[in-house]
Amino acid sequence: MIEEIVSEEYEAYVLKDHNRAARLMKAFPGSVLFINIDSTMKEPEWERYILEMKNSDQYDDPRIGIFTYDENQELAKKYLIDYSLPAGFIRLKLGFAETKKILLDVLKANEAKGRRKFVRALCAKDAQATINVSRDGSIIQGKLLDISSAGAACAFPQEGLFSPKSYLSDIQLQLRGARIMLNAIVMGTRQDDARVHVILFDPKSTDGEKRRRVFRYIRGNLQRFIESYPV
């Protein structure tokens, strides 16, 4: 499900420590927190946890939703009506497709994407995120700085290697062991560093499997970020 949500251009993470989740909600106000009340603690403990967060002035209007297999109507009424949780009460027994649809509707209603159209992975510190471009019979290797499903920013050894609107064929992306071949168009270089080129992937060269590999990397990158975030 997380990979599916990321492929819809949302930043999504899995958290196993509810105390850490509470601290992250302070660090990232405006986030949506879905809680699986079937796991870790008993439901009354989750209720106390949610109310403490909801009623505390340490959180900026926390947006909380519930996941559960429990079909108890009173339980749904408590969280939906009595506590008015903005991210809803989602029954997992509805099946994968229906759960995904409901979840996406909730995220859209809560404007969880923000202003960004594409979810982006920052990978400047990831030594296993590189790009190879063929030019004049030789291979130029660069470092990926960030990547989305639409394109990437990459640093090459020299300034201005590729002029704006250049078409780059058979680019090779290396994303932590996943090798992806595609084509791209150079949009330009960054003003503060002409070694950094911004490219857009040619949609005709990024079929479903290639997109899935990019999203898989993005999802893993996001998860590593949230697990290492100091809270």
Topology, please?
Elements: H1 2-7, H2 18-27, E1 32-36, H3 43-55, E2 63-68, H4 73-82, E3 89-91, H5 96-109, E4 121-122, E5 129-135, E6 138-147, E7 151-155, E8 167-175, E9 178-190, E10 193-201, H6 208-228
Parallel strand pairs: 1-2, 2-3
Antiparallel strand pairs: 4-6, 5-6, 5-8, 6-7, 7-10, 8-9, 9-10
Describe this structure in words.
The structure is a single chain. With 231 residues, the protein is an alpha+beta fold. The protein is built from 6 helices and 10 strands. The two termini are 26 Å apart.
Q: What's the short version?
A:
With 231 residues, this protein is α+β, with helices and mostly antiparallel strands. It contains six helices and ten strands. It has helices spanning 2-7, 18-27, 43-55, 73-82, 96-109, 208-228; strands spanning 32-36, 63-68, 89-91, 121-122, 129-135, 138-147, 151-155, 167-175, 178-190, 193-201.
The shape, in one word, is elongated
Radius of gyration: 21 Å
Give the number of DSSP strands: 10
The low-confidence parts are none
- Would you tell me the overall average pLDDT? 94
Q: What are its keywords?
A:
231 residues; alpha+beta; three-stranded parallel sheet
